[in-house]
Amino acid sequence: MANTLSKFFNRLFGAEQAAPVSNQPTPAPEVVAAPKTPEAVVTAKPEPEIATPQPEPVPVAETPASSTATIEKLVAWKPALPVDSLFFDWVMGYPGEGGSFETEQTVMQALYKLLASDLNDAVIVPRVPSVIPQLLSSLRSKTISAGELSRQIVKDVVLVGEVINTVNSALYNPADRINSLEKAVMILGEEGLRLVIAKVAFRPIINLNAGQFTRRAAPHIWGQSEKCAVACHTLARDMDPFHAFLTGLMKNVGLIIAFRLLDQTCEQGKFKYSPAFQPIFSSVAATLSYRIAQRWEFPEHVILALQQQAGGRKAIEWSPLGHLLHTADLIAKMRLLVNHGQLNSSDKKLRIGLNPAEVSCFDHLNEIQLYDTTGVQQHPEAQT
Predict the structure, then answer these.
(1) Quick check: is 60 in a domain?
(2) What is the count of structural domains for the chain?
(3) Domain assignment present for 272
(4) CB 14 within 8 A of CB 243
(5) What CATH number has the domain bearing residue 90?
(6) How far is 351 from 246, CA to CA, in rounded Å?
(7) Would 306 be classed as within a structural domain?
(8) N- or C-end of the chain: fewer Cβ atoms within 10 A?
(9) pTM exceeding the 0.85 threshold for the entire prediction
(10) How many C-beta atoms surround the C-beta of residue 375 within 10 A?
């Protein structure tokens, strides 16, 4: 499975990423180990104090000395509202204040055990639709025609629906609905098709309907993943926007796996948790995301960006992509919370600290969606 996914994502990122830079170390795939003493997680009342898990850093690509000064100036945006905790409470179904010491301990020990395991054996990752690697290879060909691409796309019913919905979305805003697949392919172009294919590949991974926790959270997590990817693509400066898009999609892979673990460890559909639980749960989920990115042999700068979302004891020297992902993730969460009536869009606190481009991205994120997924069915292979 890991080999298949590695080949797929090597194709997805393109030939230019096939060979790593020779003078930079390759990240060790399994350096991160779960803490050996989960008993250190203390959530006892009245004032639970849980130390955020601090995985050992993975040796990823070093930053060239010439750009160090620029990276050191990057400062993470801290919103005026507790966006992360508000989003987490929402997807958890607002269980109420308080805390369940035993439940929190059970969940955290299971998460630490998962971190210490071989993720390929511990987690079932849905298969990538078989037509996608072939399409990605074809997209790099300079001679392939729209008709030839259409004949490949038509083999996958979900991909057909995605392409047609995309060209008829607000982003392209055609005068009349487009139903011709070949015309849709011509309108999208190479970059548009790459984005569509990437999203089709990731949806089964994120949108998994398992137990009570995942059923409730998955639609919101997938919606936030889409918006995060679009925000990354929109705000990308001096970097590959497609890589930024994929990094945004990858951000929540660990989170959905953590929710699947909740399904396995908690019989009840909700449980009360202490304030310390959310940041730890989110940190472990972020660690899972970049561990999986390592297993799938993503480019080193993408792995580094994902790793930085897990936090740590030391101040983070943000990479450009990691800094972008941090901001885009928060913007996407705010946008989704506003859309669902959990925040007021007119609240000035939402925009404090954002630059004009980021404010515009937040205000117009609904309008710049790349996709209209209404009516697009789950891929059959995702249900196996």
Answers:
(1) no
(2) 1
(3) yes
(4) no
(5) 1.10.3210.10
(6) 25
(7) yes
(8) C
(9) no
(10) 7
Q: What is the pLDDT along the chain (384 residues), one digit of tens a residue?
A: 555 555 555 665 554 444 443 344 444 444 444 444 444 444 444 444 444 455 555 454 444 444 444 445 789 999 999 999 999 999 998 887 766 788 888 999 988 888 888 776 545 554 555 565 666 677 667 677 777 778 878 777 778 888 888 888 766 777 788 888 888 888 888 778 878 877 877 777 665 656 888 888 988 999 999 999 999 999 999 998 888 998 999 999 899 888 888 888 887 778 888 888 999 999 999 999 998 888 777 889 999 999 999 987 777 899 999 999 999 999 999 999 999 999 999 999 999 999 999 999 999 998 875 543 333 333 333 333
Residue labelled with tokens 């409730």: 216
Candidates 292, 309, 167; CA nearest to 232 is: 309
User: Element (H or E) spanning 4, and its range?
Assistant: helix 2-13
Name the residue among 130, 106, 65 with its Cα closest to residue 266: 106
Identify the domain containing residue 156 by its residue range.
2-13+74-383
117, HSE (Cβ side, Cα atoms, 13 Å): 12
AA identity, residue 353: G
User: Is 58:298 a contact under the CB 8 Å cutoff?
Assistant: no
41 backbone dihedrals φ, ψ, rounded to 5°: -75, 110
* DSSP secondary structure letter of residue 377: P
Phi, psi (5° rounding) for residue 50? -110, 125
Is residue 209 situated within a structural domain?
A: yes
